[in-house]
Specification:
Number of helices: 11
Structural class: mainly alpha
Helix content: 55-70%
Order of helices and strands: HEEEHHHHHHHHHH
Oligomer: single chain
Strand content: 5-15%
Mean pLDDT: 92
Number of strands: 3
Largest sheet: 3 strands, antiparallel
């Protein structure tokens, strides 16, 4: 058996600065995703745990520890007190979360936004679980520190799905909600300097402005713009017509 993959790398040259991803079905019939990196390839499964392993018979380490917690509850009358994640547990959960991070970055590049939402939500569940059960705040922070990046990627995927359906209002609402969640995270960490100027905040604010500038105007917005233009020209007859049309539109909207 030859372990040399030079021919594969030669057929798919690395491009610095580009995220190069491809998706295919493996010999085992399962979907695979490959990421081209400068020194080779990173390959992962498209479903389940990215490396294909089933730790302790579970789909992931998260599910293994959730099962441990459930056994602890049953043994202690439903109580969670005394259940802790050790430093080794947290480190391994972090390593596993990095696998899902690599995959959702690839899925975003492939425009599989539903897959990005699935994997980011999964990692957020890990973060919440570790925060609640880690043996110390320092261990919990190992994962918590990546929350803003994770929320940003989830919002990007959610917003992209809304834009595919030309639902600009929903996309704008999702971005605004995501911005507030990230800001609240920074407030809780007493990082006021990042509330307005964090990299994730800046990216989402720029995206928000871009969508607002490009989205089609609603009928109400078109009439309001026409009204302002008519008043600016001192064309009061036209302004009265537009004002009546705007009033009728609002009444129709409120009664429907």
């Amino acid at each position: 058996m030859s372990f040399d993959i030079s021919h594969v790398l030669n057929e798919w040259p690395y491009q610095p600065g580009d995220i190069q991803v491809r998706r295919f079905k493996g010999k085992d019939g399962c979907e695979k995703i490959q990421l081209r990196v400068d020194v080779g390839l990173l390959q992962m499964n498209g479903q389940g745990r990215p490396d294909g392993k089933r730790p302790f018979g579970h789909e992931s380490l998260l599910e293994h520890h959730q099962a441990r917690l459930e056994r602890h509850r049953k043994a202690h009358g439903g109580e969670e007190a005394g259940f802790k994640l050790t430093a080794e547990d947290c480190a391994k959960l972090q390593q596993e979360a990095i696998q899902y991070y690599h995959r959702y970055i690839c899925l975003f590049q492939l425009k599989d936004f539903a897959g990005v939402i699935r994997d980011t939500e999964r990692n957020l569940e890990v973060f919440r679980f570790v925060k609640k059960h880690a043996d110390s705040d320092e261990l919990a922070w190992m994962l918590q520190q990546f929350t803003p990046q994770l929320l940003m990627m989830q919002v990007r995927a959610q917003g992209a799905l809304a834009l595919e359906d030309k639902n600009y209002v929903e996309a704008l609402d999702l971005i605004k909600t995501g911005l507030e969640e990230i800001r609240e995270f920074y407030r809780q960490q007493a990082r006021q300097d990042l509330v307005e100027h964090g990299s994730e905040i800046s990216f989402l604010e720029n995206w928000l402005q871009e969508i607002q500038a490009k989205r089609p105007l609603s009928e109400e917005e078109k009439l309001e713009l026409a009204l302002n233009e008519a008043v600016g020209r001192e064309d009061y007859e036209k302004a009265a017509e537009v004002r009546d049309a705007l009033r009728n539109l609002k009444q129709s909207s409120s009664s429907s």
